[in-house]
């Protein structure tokens, strides 16, 4: 099933079936997914890997530079999020390797490839970091959620499940961070 969906168009500009992986060579494996599927999944997961590593560095940036109200609580929370995101990075990278691909996770590749906005270096207050980090977490959750649809299109249930597990985690972290600023409900009509 390779029908065109809005999801793949929004994440990569082309559907999985239209994408030409940057690296079409794969390691041999007895994994029974078709090589073309493995190549496309590895390519798409490398995009998500870049986003995820970028998010991890942004968690540390917030953890190190936060000042002011709720310092110790937020300092610890941001490090807990970093630890979880590091696990998500490993899940994505090792799935790429399982499929015979090469996980492309160097800082230079990530800086070039990440879909997340740059984290501002001059932030200081708790509110500023809560706002910036929740924006980054939400942006990553969005690309991971769209990635689930892409894995479903490529019929790789395991990669879809991995991104679902990751999205479940980041949705919870988004709640933990955003709750510091959710003072009132808004009318959604
Ligand atoms: Fe630390």
TrEMBL record:
Name the InterPro entries on file: DPS_DNA-bd, DPS_DNA-bd_CS, Ferritin-like, Ferritin-like_SF, Ferritin_DPS_dom
Query: Ferritin/DPS domain location, by residue?
Result: 43-181
Q: What is this protein called?
A: DNA starvation/stationary phase protection protein Dps
UniProt-listed PANTHER family:
DNA PROTECTION DURING STARVATION PROTEIN, GENERAL STRESS PROTEIN 20U
The UniProt annotation puts the region (Disordered) at: 1-23
Source species of the chain? Salinisphaera aquimarina
- Its domain of life reads Bacteria
One Pfam family this sequence matches? Ferritin
């Amino acid at each position: 099933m390779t029908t065109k969906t809005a999801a793949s168009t929004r994440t990569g500009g082309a559907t999985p079936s239209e994408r030409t992986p940057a690296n079409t060579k794969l390691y041999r494996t007895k994994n029974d997914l078709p090589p073309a599927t493995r190549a496309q999944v590895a390519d798409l997961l490398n995009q998500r890997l870049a986003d995820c590593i970028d998010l991890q560095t942004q968690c540390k940036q917030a953890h190190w530079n936060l000042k002011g109200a709720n310092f110790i609580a937020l300092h610890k929370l941001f490090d807990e999020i970093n630890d979880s995101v590091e696990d998500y990075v490993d899940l994505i990278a090792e799935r790429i390797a399982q499929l015979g691909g090469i996980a492309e996770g160097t800082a230079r590749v990530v800086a070039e490839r990440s879909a997340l906005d740059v984290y501002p270096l001059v932030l200081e207050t708790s509110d500023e970091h809560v706002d910036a980090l929740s924006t980054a977490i939400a942006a990553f959750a969005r690309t991971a959620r769209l990635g689930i649809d892409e894995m479903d299109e490529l019929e790789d249930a395991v990669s879809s499940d991995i991104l679902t597990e990751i999205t479940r985690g980041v949705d919870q972290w988004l709640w933990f961070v955003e709750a510091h600023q959710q003072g009132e409900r808004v009318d959604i009509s």
